[in-house]
Design brief:
The protein has 13 helices and 15 strands. It has helices spanning about 30-35, 45-50, 60-65, 75-85, 110-120, 140-165, 185-195, 215-225, 240-250, 260-265, 310-315, 315-325, 330-350, and strands at about 5, 10-15, 15-20, 45, 70-75, 90, 95-100, 105-110, 125, 170-175, 200-205, 230-235, 255, 265-270, 285-290. Strands 3-13-12-11-10-9-5-4 form an 8-stranded parallel sheet. Helix 10 packs antiparallel against helix 13 (about 330-350) and helix 12 packs across helix 13 (about 330-350). The protein binds zinc ion. One of its GO terms (biological process) is tRNA modification.
Length: about 350
């Protein structure tokens, strides 16, 4: 099993979890020092959202004062969330994705432009632009998406090779497997991408169906199509249990808004026992608490006795309850720090 991934900003131990810093910040008031302290090994930023924030010689590492790896999401997810779901916000052709921004301005996004921007942002891991679909979309749309995704990945690789061939420190380029819930399409997409030989492969599309059920079987099938000597990235996964399930299938990279979004909504994760006593692959290993409940008001204990995060080492549940009650932004930061550390501790446990 792959244990380490070498990048231009240090080695990443696998499996690993990246929080989403979509617009160059992890929501919840955390700065990059907080992120380092929670021991996250990398962050995911969004190419489309950050295209206006950088200048020549001023990439996102410098902008954010972040010295660890940066993964750039190509803009493929916005193809689904904006263009497929809201056709007024853009248009898709075989050549490009066209977005209409809030001011009505047209943004033409080709696979080549996506690679150029990701390199400018300072990415350590670039993702090929893909036509991301919803798993519930009709088969004809999934077929088109796979065709485009393969063609765009080929164009991304040509542009990437052209722009990085002279560089001493070459970043990594990952491709995204689309195909919705259809096995033959996932197979077609994975085979074509593996043939093109990328540095890693991602499971693309929402990992949940229309009823928000985890698409375990298609995730498992897709993992089986990908080479074991390259990283397998389950994009957008997920809950702690979903991550463990995907790890068993062979995935070793994850990103998701869940830990920080749940923290902002007062939901905190806790391990059921000290980590060394948990059989994480076979047991129910965690639960969650909801800080809305007044039973926490007089509680002077930390969120978890098994957590070494800044919040648990210094503050009580009662204080956090109070901060949420008075709606102070410190509540969001302390809760987010705890949940992110829960996720990195989960990774440490899976690494062992
Ligand atoms: Zn904690």
């Amino acid at each position: 099993m792959l244990k380490t991934l070498k990048t231009n900003h240090g080695d990443i131990s696998l499996p690993t979890f990246f929080p989403d810093a979509t617009r160059g910040v992890v929501k919840g008031g955390l700065d990059t020092v907080d992120l380092s302290n929670t021991k996250v090994e990398g962050i995911v930023i969004n190419t489309l959202h950050l295209r206006g924030a950088i200048r020549e010689q001023f990439n996102c590492h410098l902008l954010m004062n972040w010295t660890k790896p940066i993964i750039t999401d190509s803009g493929g997810f916005q193809v689904m969330s904006l263009i497929h779901h809201h056709p007024k916000l853009g248009k898709l052709t075989d050549n490009e994705a066209i977005f209409i921004d809030a001011s009505g301005q047209k943004i033409i996004f080709t696979p080549e432009a996506s690679i150029q921007l990701q390199l400018k942002l300072g990415a350590d891991i670039l993702i090929c632009l893909d036509d991301c679909t919803d798993p519930e979309s009709p088969l004809s749309l999934q077929e088109k998406s796979v065709e485009r995704t393969i063609n765009w990945a080929r164009r991304c690789k040509i542009e990437f090779d052209k722009l990085t061939s002279q560089k001493n420190a070459r970043p990594l380029l990952f491709a995204v497997v689309q195909g919705g819930k259809d096995r033959s399409l996932r197979k077609k997409c994975a085979r074509a991408l593996v043939e093109l030989n990328f540095d890693g492969y991602c499971f693309g599309g929402r990992p949940l169906d229309g009823e928000n059920k985890f698409l375990k079987s298609i995730l498992q099938f897709t993992a089986s199509l990908l080479p074991n000597d390259k990283p397998k990235y389950a994009m957008g996964v997920g809950t702690p249990q979903n991550i463990v399930d995907c790890f068993k299938m062979g995935y070793n990279m994850f990103d998701c808004v869940i830990p920080t979004r749940e923290a902002r909504h007062k939901k905190l994760y806790i391990f059921n026992k000290p980590l060394e006593q948990i059989d994480i692959l076979n047991q129910e290993f965690y639960s969650s608490i909801y800080l809305q409940q007044s039973r926490f008001r007089d509680n002077l204990q930390p969120i978890s006795p098994f957590c070494d995060c800044l919040t648990c080492q210094n503050y009580s549940l009662g204080y956090l309850y109070h901060l949420f009650k008075i709606k102070d932004i410190l509540a969001l930061r302390l809760a987010s720090i705890h949940n992110l550390r829960f996720y990195t501790m989960l990774m440490e446990k899976l690494t062992r």
